[in-house]
Design goal:
Length: about 240
């Protein structure tokens, strides 16, 4: 069995997970998340909303996150996966340090952590794209990163349609012309799903005393979630382009 065939089996297993309908536990968490939202200060909710909207705009139109180096060429998928794991390991440490520092300061520094962490996540995705050979100078690639981000932090109820957009990328990208991207892309839903997915972990970070420990663990875990989804999305795209999947 080749490495690509091994990855193909892993991706088919992962696909079943992405398309699985929500169970009782996932459904019941929606009510809990709504109650958690009520505990947030309005100022924090405003920061979350504006940060996500600005992120979507920056990714679609800006060059803020584009790495200095060129996308890697002439590498096998196995080599790219190794480099991706090394990158993820580095970024998890960065995110954990950020969470510990802001978590130690309670609610106000906890609020500051939200835009910092979202920037760390996006920088990771941009570098990950280059490891897998895709140039983030291209709008189509940056748009792909937004959908990866959305998939990683969507509820199980919302994941299947997002996953299908990634799976059928050539059709999806036609729905989002560059000049109308901000009008077409549902950044409000994007923001709600992201907020709900991190609620409990980040809410505890705002509490003085335990915030530093919770912040470090939460940020580390959130980067792990994003890393696994990001790697699989790029592996999926490469194997589809090679006609293996």
């Amino acid at each position: 069995m080749t490495y690509e065939e091994k990855v193909r089996k892993e991706l088919l297993k992962w696909q079943r997970k992405m398309l699985k309908p929500p169970g009782l536990i996932e459904k019941s968490t929606k009510g809990i998340q709504s109650r958690i939202n009520e505990l947030y200060p309005q100022k924090f909710l405003d920061v979350m909303t504006s940060t996500v909207k600005n992120l979507v705009r920056a990714v679609i139109f800006g060059l803020e996150f584009i790495p200095k180096g060129k996308p890697l060429k002439n590498k096998s998928l196995a080599e790219r996966d190794i480099l991706a794991m090394e990158l993820l390991k580095t970024y998890k440490k960065v995110a954990a340090a950020e969470g510990a520092g802001t978590g130690a300061g309670g609610i106000f520094l906890g609020m500051a952590d939200f835009p910092a962490l979202i920037a760390i996540k996006m920088k990771f995705l941009f570098e990950l794209a280059h490891i897998y050979g895709y140039s983030t100078e291209r709008y189509r690639v940056r748009l792909y990163l937004l959908f990866i981000f959305q998939l990683a932090f969507s509820s199980q109820e919302k994941r299947p349609p997002v996953y299908r957009k990634i799976l059928h990328w050539e059709e999806t990208v036609k729905e989002y012309p560059e000049l109308k991207a901000m009008e077409v892309f549902d950044w409000e839903q994007f923001q709600i799903e992201y907020r709900d997915s991190i609620d409990l972990r980040k809410m505890l970070q705002l509490l003085p005393g335990i915030g530093a420990v919770v912040g470090a663990v939460a940020n580390y875990g959130l980067l792990e979630d994003l890393g696994q989804v990001g790697m699989n999305c790029f592996r999926l795209r490469i194997l589809k382009e090679q006609g293996i999947l």
